[in-house]
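[Meeting: bench + compute handoff]

Bench side (C.D.) handed over the final construct sequence. Compute side (W.E.) agreed to return the predicted structure before the next meeting so the bench team could plan truncations. Sequence as handed over:
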Amino acid sequence: MLDEKQPRKDEEVDRIRSIFWFYLIAASIGSSKATDVRKALEPHKSSVNKHGQSDKNEKFAHYRSGERMPNSTLVDLANRKVPGSRACIDHPLWRVLRFRGSIQLQASSWIGRLSSRVQNLMFTNQRTLIEPASQLQLENLVRDKSLDSLAALTVIYRLSQEREDADAMWTCATAIFQLLVMMNGMLSTFHIGQLLYDLYADRLLRSASCGGNIRAWDVFQYDVGAEVIHLYAHLSQKKINGRRRHPDYYVMQAMTESHPRQVDEFLPILLPNLGLGPPTSEGAELLRKYLALQPHLASKVSQADSAVD
């Protein structure tokens, strides 16, 4: 499918792009007030309208809330004053997320726009994409902790989905979760952490299934949960008397799948995939336990109970 056949707008993705762009500029000027950002970017514009009254233009407040996208002229102007701000709003990640249909023809081109480090992890010496991705490749992308590596993991997930490779989707979904948590500091600074996580949970992660199970991605409260994981990792590191590893090691340890599940495993819990049919009695019990976290599961649990009975 060619780019010109794609929808021009994607409200969920564009909301994140606009908020990210606004707060990146706000951080550079030291104020997140819409009026201050406007003055920094458009100092030549008067604060009064043609009638001599206070100008009530709210466009920068709308950029901050994600209700409106800045036009290309303003993006170019902002990039001259805050270099790199265009890159955040036009990052390949947004194209990967918003693209409809098969990405097979576009994948290599998107990866080619990412950092050389990420490209080296994604391409063979012949500049063809490495498929399927190895566990080491996924781990190295998570360690990169960047929008570029997130874009690469998203490409890997979508290509795995097109191949109907359930195992690859499952391991990649875990890697995406790990990376989003690892990037919590940056994503929270720019006020897009929860929004971006929710987008991934809804559009990608929910389709990953393994052994008849899915993960309750949608009940994970990213803003709080990611902070808890980082705090746990910090406390775990402090308990070590001998040689301590890099802090990222302890964060990753808290998000590593274990069998059976350990009490200190912070991956969202496994739930039976109701799309495959009625759950076992054990699966129905899991659904009951997590009903309080996600009220909309109530109807599904009721159906499951009837099926088990």
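W.E. noted at the follow-up: DSSP finds 17 helices and two strands in the chain. C.D. will use this when planning the next construct.
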